[in-house]
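Predicting holo structure, zinc ion bound.
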Amino acid sequence: MLSIEDSKDDLIRRKRIKLVFKILSLIILIIILIYLFIYLLETHSMPFYIAFLIVLFLFLFFLGFVLKNKKRSILSLFPAFRESSKMEDRQKEYIKQLSRKPRPDILQFNYQKPLIEKCPNCGIILANFMKKCPNCNYEL
Ligand SMILES: [Zn+2]
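Done. Tokens:
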């Protein structure tokens, strides 16, 4: 019982440390970006909106590193794909059932002549409608 509570406390502490770390890194990031903003405006005499856009881009870029959560598939955002595991299970079951039953229909197919063939005399690749090899004049 005690150990479970200890581990819970540990977990909460770890979460708090992570949160503090995140907030600190965000503050540092914002300070750096503000300095960069001022630097861009004063030393390069950049237009305000371009400096703002650069800083905004950098902020969002590094925000991704600070706020990275568990990796999540983008498909989980769409409700239609959320039950894909069920669908997969159903598909697997279906495939299992198929593989159990004997399937004579699998052998029912029409034979088609291959689209290309080799000349039996010289080995050049020919279309299947050719009657005569253009290379060696061999009658097919
Ligand atoms: Zn030939």
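The longest strand covers residues 116-118.
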